[in-house]
Amino acid sequence: VMQLHVGSLRNHDVLLFERFGPDRGADIPVAIEFTRALQPLLTEFGSHPGFRLVVFTLDESTYARELAPLAGHYPALVLGPAWWFHDSVEGMLRYREHVTETAGFYNTAGFNDDTRAFCSIPARHDLARRIDAHYLGRLVARHQIGLGEARRIATDLAVTLPRRVYRLDARRTSTDLPTTEARS
């Protein structure tokens, strides 16, 4: 499994960097282009069953325009959850709204956390589950999905998808999840 975390200009404040070193909070989101940049990699490995690419971005403008269509087309490409500056109630909700219509739920990694703030992990996972439950609840209220389907998707987002994407559960195979046709 390969991960790309892109869209940040690191250490933007040169004076802060020179005085205190890297990773002091002066990282700023920047625009990213995925469609052309990933084309050689995805042409070669985008349908390879042994390859998995999880993409995280700070450039929200690419969610619906580039990343969701790419994830919907290439089986090896999976969208990582809202990250860093977007790891908030509104950021997570924007991610879900921009990604799900085109990529569906099953072309995402569910919620995973690579934070160095170890003590915040339970709260971050709880927030992600609440945002997904809110989103699914709206779909149920509009009769777009049934309650049983919403429960199944909620479990998949919280448990099944991260395990599958990161190959953490050897007992489960890709046949345990809906097919590409069902994921649309």
Question: Main traits of this protein?
Answer:
single chain, 184 residues, mainly alpha, TIM Barrel, three-stranded parallel sheet, two-stranded antiparallel ribbon, 48% helix, globular, disordered C terminus
Explain the overall architecture:
By secondary structure, this protein is mostly helical. It has a single domain, classed as Metal-dependent hydrolases (TIM Barrel, Alpha-Beta Barrel), CATH 3.20.20.140. It is 48% helix and 9% strand. The chain is built from 7 helices and 5 strands, in the order E-E-H-E-H-E-H-E-H-H-H-H. Helix 3 packs across helix 4. The two termini are 23 Å apart.
Class by alpha and beta content: mainly alpha
What's the average pLDDT?
91
What is the strand tally? Answer: 5
**What kind of sheet is the major sheet?**
3 strands, parallel
Give the number of helices.
Answer: 7
CATH class: Alpha Beta
Low-pLDDT runs of 5+ residues are: 179-184
Topology:
Layout: E1 2-6, E2 8-9, H1 14-20, E3 28-29, H2 35-45, E4 53-57, H3 62-73, E5 77-79, H4 89-103, H5 121-141, H6 147-165, H7 180-183
Parallel strand pairs: 1-4, 4-5
Antiparallel strand pairs: 2-3
Helix pairs in contact: 3-4, 4-5, 5-6
Concise account of the structure shown:
The protein is 48% helix and 9% strand.
